[in-house]
Design brief:
Length: 351
């Protein structure tokens, strides 16, 4: 019997050994890919820039952008230097728009890094940084100080993109309005036009620019600048225009305008929906609806966009407000604003 017990013990030990070896093999198969991913060398900067330029999937471009930004300021400047090519000082830059778009998404959590790049000694780097910030909308606010300095850049492409980026930040850029006013007298008409447009996009928060915009509208020798000033003047005066419309409107419309401004979301949405149903008859509500596009309540903003679309071509002066809403992250708001823009433009062409 002793030999039998010895044999059983030996076989049991062998079985345990085999089980241990099998488990080790299975664990190795599971962890090998993880260890391989962890230990594989990171892509070089040229490889990341190439992905940013030409990756077939947009998410891969964004991932490359994030990796570039994570590499620090030298990495970002190097990428921008490659992405933007210029000839003479004021020549039109050659860029890959999809690469800048992906970099704008990648930099949404670190816009200050682009602000640093905007101070580069290299003109093409400053141009590319300003162009990326221009696409970031309100998310570019942390770079506002650098963008303000960019307004006085010797290169017109930097000035233009910086002005557009500030306008796209919207009301949160109100602090730099005073610094923008002298540029309404800039010798370059394209700079004057872009700064006027930016002030309009800041909206009522830039109301102190109204006298300068009114002067520009009347006196500038360039018709495009005068038109930009006219539109901007309307947008910075939205609050005064809304108040004036409320005093002249019918009793029904007055009630709806009061309800539209209420802090209660349901009341405001119901008012906007009724204005939508009135269509062109509610054109006096256009300034108030444009203001409602900046409500803290999402569905008020959506309903305001729908109402402006229903009003049609008369709402053309507030198209910049709808363009800003169409660039935001919320899918429902983007869709409503884009649809409203299309309706307004379609009716304008029909008229």
């Amino acid at each position: 019997m002793a030999w039998f017990r010895t044999t059983v013990i030996a076989l049991s030990g062998l079985s345990l050994l085999l089980l241990s070896l099998t488990g080790a093999v299975l664990l190795g198969r599971h962890f090998r890919p993880i260890l391989h991913r962890h230990n594989r060398p990171q892509d070089s900067l040229p490889a990341l820039v190439e992905k940013l330029r030409s990756a077939a999937v947009f998410e891969e471009r964004v991932a490359a952008g994030r990796a570039i930004i994570a590499g620090g300021s030298e990495s970002l400047v190097g990428a921008l230097d490659t992405l933007c090519q210029i000839g003479q000082a004021d020549a039109q830059p050659v860029v890959v728009p999809q690469a800048l778009q992906a970099l704008a998404v990648a930099a949404s959590d670190s816009p200050a890094a682009l602000g640093e790049a905007l101070r580069s000694d290299k003109t093409n780097v400053r141009i590319a940084a300003a162009m990326v910030l221009r696409q970031m909308g309100p998310k570019a606010q942390p770079a506002l100080s650098s963008l303000t300095k960019g307004l006085s850049d010797e290169n017109r492409w930097v000035r233009w993109s910086a002005a557009e980026a500030i306008g796209n930040i919207g009301p949160q850029a109100a602090a730099v309005v005073e610094a923008m006013l002298p540029l309404l007298d800039h010798e370059d008409r394209f700079t004057r036009r872009r700064v006027a447009t930016a002030l309009g996009r800041i909206g009522p928060a830039a109301s102190r620019a109204a006298p300068r915009l009114a002067k520009l509208q009347k006196e500038d020798h360039d018709p495009a600048v005068r038109k930009a000033a006219e539109t901007a003047l309307y947008l910075v005066n939205l609050e005064a225009l809304a108040a004036a419309a409320a005093t002249e409107a019918s009793p029904e419309l007055q009630k709806l305008l009061v309800d539209l401004k209420q802090d209660d979301e349901y009341t405001s949405v119901a008012a906007a929906n009724r204005l939508r149903d009135l269509g062109p008859q509610a054109k006096q509500a256009i300034p108030a609806l444009a203001l409602a596009l900046r409500s803290k309540h999402k569905w008020v903003r959506v309903a305001a966009a729908e109402a402006l679309g229903a009003i049609g071509s008369d709402a053309q002066p507030v198209l910049p407000c709808l363009e800003q809403a169409a660039g935001e992250d919320d899918a429902e708001l983007r869709s409503a604003a884009e649809a409203a823009k299309q309706k307004i433009e379609a009716r304008r062409l029909q008229n």
